[in-house]
Amino acid sequence: MIKIIGDGIISSLGISTEENFQHILDGKSGLRLIDDESSSLDPYYSSLVEKDNLSSIVENIDKYTKLEAMSIASILNAVEDKGIDLGSKDTIFIFSSTKGNIDLLNNNNSKDLRIRLWKTAEIISKYFHNENEPMVVSNACISGVSAQILASRLLKSRKYKRAVVVGADLVSKFTVSGFQSFHSLADKECKPFDKNRVGLNIGEAAACIILQYEDEKSLNNDDIILLDGIMKNDANHISGPSRTGEGSYRCLNHLLKNTNTEKVAFINAHGTATNYNDEMESIALERAGFSDVPVNSMKAYFGHTLGAAGVLESIISARALKEGLILPTKGYVEKGVSGNIRISDRLLKTNKNFAIKLISGFGGCNAALLFKKI
Amino acid sequence: MKQESKIISYTYIDAERNIVVINGEKVFETENLDIKDFLTKVYKTLCDSYPKFYKMDIHCKLGYLLSELLLESSGNRQKGIEDRAIAVVNSSSSLCSDIKHQASIEDNGNYFPSPANFVYTLSNIVTGEIAIRNKYYGETISYIHSSYDSKYLKEIFDLSMVDECNNSILLSWIESIDTTAEGIMFLISKEEGKQGVNVSEKELDNIWQKLKNNK
Lengths: 374, 215
Known about the structure:
The complex is a heterodimer. Chain A is of the alpha/beta class.
């Protein structure tokens, strides 16, 4: 069994999982209006991390870029005082990001190794004196979920005992300008699944989840395990989701081999608040038979944190499952998708034991994870 | 019944050296074309018409051509294999398109980011292009690694095969930056009755070394 033994989040909402989770329960959002010419010609809503806030956490922080410092801090938060030896040979680091240190790129430095994700991953794992070659996955917005699936496979094949999965991405002029060129950024806080949604916000974060292989009999009540994970492609379009939600539907359908819809407390959807994404997910969820299961999105708390989203949102969902809570979808007021689904709009209690993380990204990729509370 | 995974077929393109190799045999070469013109020449000479090709960036063109030539040569394009997985590895991600996007935003007085280019600033788009072309709904994944490394390729292949859904896979190393565009793609299957060599680190290394040494 693959058990979550530690987790950490660095975001605009806080520099620990605890702080982030509490702020969500309090209904706070990390999104604010950013008016800064170095990242965008026009003001935009986003949620940003201050590197300075990490200087008391990360040793010799000046040696590290902002992305590296955020990643390291998220790992430190995940190990905390748990006495986990991250330098040991049976620990593998898996780094997931869409763009890594993309803020370092300018027109003259394409040879700089630090903009290569494998180099970034090496710098992060070296901080923890881990000698294993880190694995790096860059799979658009599903990167953080892909990384957990790979971790789970590595642990099941018993190559390693534990995996440190880190997802991280920055908000930089590079990404802001790109999403602006797609006209997919909202001019206010995003409204996932809502009738009046007008687009997404991007946000920056680093999140770390530590997974460990455990025998079934050594699990305790309330432990959260990653029971299953799956990736599927839409085979439809490189930047537009499938109208039938094909890949997401196939992912959800696959997870039903290990649970049924009645046992699932909630589904944490991608819910980016773009017209196409939310519509697509509603269709996939209805097709897979999840019409009665509460669906939430965390994008109005953090924005879309790109390669970090899959890890960050899994951590929050696992925490909610552990505490028997179904989180509300901030920003949501009135249903604005055609699929017959139930959007979670208030904090609810649950005694169900399963939760699903659903996600999709450019390149037609989709993925889903199934978490279970023991 | 499933058998041990076998390398059914492989293709190799080095756009800098202007060569195309299928299963160890050089099937096409030209001289003195730059990488972009060479890839277009390969497309026009060896592939079926697929107008989306022209929209792709260098990285995706290279991956697309590798997959087309591979699937044609192996006679193994579709038929009951919609869950085929696609895994690509490279070192520089989508740096070619990243540089282009960066150039379009660097100067606020000359600011022209394009969505058609921005979408290619993700290293996994090539997997999507191949999935779309062939209606493959299987898993698609992009890994980043410092160099072609047969041990690593074998490891990510093994990881894909942990999932029982994955009966066959297109496994590829594709690297493009500046004047370089070089890639190899393997079709590996564990379906019964397929002929090929067993997948091993040694085999993946032998094939690569031969291609690199073939002047």
